[in-house]
Write a structure and sequence with these properties.
Transcrip_reg_TACO1-like_dom3, Arc Repressor Mutant, subunit A, about 45% helix, globular, four-stranded antiparallel beta sheet, Alpha-Beta Plaits, 8 helices, Transcrip_reg_TACO1_YeeN, cytoplasm
Length: about 240
């Protein structure tokens, strides 16, 4: 199951290349999660999940605290959660999740990012059925066998466990993200290379070199939009 660790690592590396933009996106997501529930990760699962993911991107504590304090302060700024689906070169599939305070602006920007780079937006449901929502947790220094033993001892189920070089990637049900992390923490693991709920393509496709270059340009254009939080796709990046 799932995408190779190298692809996840590549995606993280591209995000890390512009940390200020990454931090701003996390600040918005943390604020929204904290405002829609209790501003306490112990009682707010959505907030806990985004904070766990923020840690793997090394989001500074000041960014996190500022977003939570803004929610606690009763800010009336509101954001709509939107999902767009579309197609890239050679029939590649893309899902775009956004948080916006201006729906018309975001829809226009996303449509333009698709259209100017050989893609086009689809209707709701045209792509999502080819993806599965799943929790992904990555750790270093463990084998797949050791990871399985840790999870079994904690009575936590995994859908799949992949081993690549010195990394182990665990795929689990979205509701088990925190339980998987807690199992590893109980076994002495303190850092995670990835810890998030993602949309994973059921099947990946390979693109010829010219189409791949166009596709990557399209993904960059989408991820550069301030309102876009996350972009998922079904292309094998190598």
């Amino acid at each position: 199951m799932g995408r190779k660790w190298n692809n996840i690592k590549e995606k993280k590396a591209s995000k890390d290349a512009n940390t200020s933009r990454v931090y701003a996106k996390f600040g918005r997501e943390i604020y929204v999660a904290a405002r829609r529930g209790e501003p306490n990760p112990e009682s707010n699962q959505a907030l806990r999940f985004v904070l766990e993911r923020a840690k793997t991107y090394n989001v500074p504590r000041a960014i996190i605290d500022r977003a939570i304090d803004k929610a606690k302060g009763g800010s009336d700024e509101t954001f709509d959660e939107l999902r767009y689906e579309g197609f890239g070169p050679n029939g590649s599939m893309v899902i775009v999740d956004a948080l916006t305070n201006n729906v018309n602006r975001t829809a226009s920007d996303v449509r333009a990012a698709f259209g100017k780079n050989g893609g086009n937006m689809g209707v709701s449901g045209s792509v999502a059925y080819m993806f599965d929502e799943i929790a992904v947790v990555g750790v270093e220094g463990k084998t797949a066998e050791e990871a399985l033993e840790i999870l079994m001892e904690a009575d936590v189920d995994a859908r799949d466990i992949l081993e690549e070089e010195d990394h182990v990637i665990v795929y689990a049900e979205p509701s088990d993200l925190h339980a998987v992390q807690q199992a590893f923490k109980a076994a002495g693991v303190t850092d995670f290379t990835v810890a998030e709920i993602t949309m994973l393509a059921q099947n990946e496709v390979e693109l010829p070199e010219d189409a791949l270059a166009k596709f990557e340009k399209m993904i960059d254009a989408l991820e550069d939009l301030d309102d876009v939080q996350r972009v998922y796709h079904n292309v094998d990046l190598g």
